[in-house]
Amino acid sequence: MAASGDDTMKVRAQAKWVRTSARKARLVLDHIRGRSVPEARTILAFTPRAAATDIEKVLRSAVANAEANHGLDGDDLVVEAAYADVGPTLKRWKPRARGRVNRIRKRTCHVTVVLAPAAQERLAGRSQRRSRRTTEQTSTTASSPQPQAADKPKATTRRRKKEAVA
């Protein structure tokens, strides 16, 4: 696609007139938004919803666009945006009893997946934050001697319960 204002390359793929409702497709798209491409592929492979197969095709197409048109590595990409817009609704009729008819709405949607390269600084920042959190957690648990659940006596509460019942 084109470079945006922050000089990051964004690659887009879109599938139009997918025969599932936009609401059902959004449930699956929420799982992969913000994840890396290998992680998103794994999630889609094990998602039991029918929309996952169509979304997986769009993801594969976006990765192929990035590799063929922009020379990017598919495993270094992140799903920056994933959304489903409402498409046209096919209207059908189902005959019912006593000459009546019910309307059947066959909904469609347009699925779009936008990929961007994973910023190494962003990944490094995450690992530094994680290491900082773990050091803070270990220092707070070591410095503050709080009574653990195993150290508390439970006999007093049991006695109170027995007295209340008796």
What is the name of the CATH architecture of the domain at 11-97 and 110-118?
Alpha-Beta Complex
What are the secondary-structure elements, in order, as H or E? EHHHEEEEHH
Unreliable segments of 5+ consecutive residues:
none
Identify the CATH class of the domain at 11-97 and 110-118: Alpha Beta
Please name the CATH topology of the domain at 11-97 and 110-118.
Ribosomal Protein L22, Chain A
How would you describe what is shown here?
With 166 residues, this protein is of the alpha+beta class. The protein is 45% helix and 23% strand. It has helices spanning 22-32, 37-45, 51-70, 120-143, 155-165; strands at 11-18, 77-86, 90-95, 101-106, 109-117. A 3-stranded antiparallel β-sheet has the order 1-5-2. Strands 3-4 form a two-stranded antiparallel ribbon. The longest helix is centred in the C-terminal third of the chain and has 24 residues, at 120-143. The N and C termini lie far apart (76 Å). The model has no long low-confidence stretch (mean pLDDT 85).
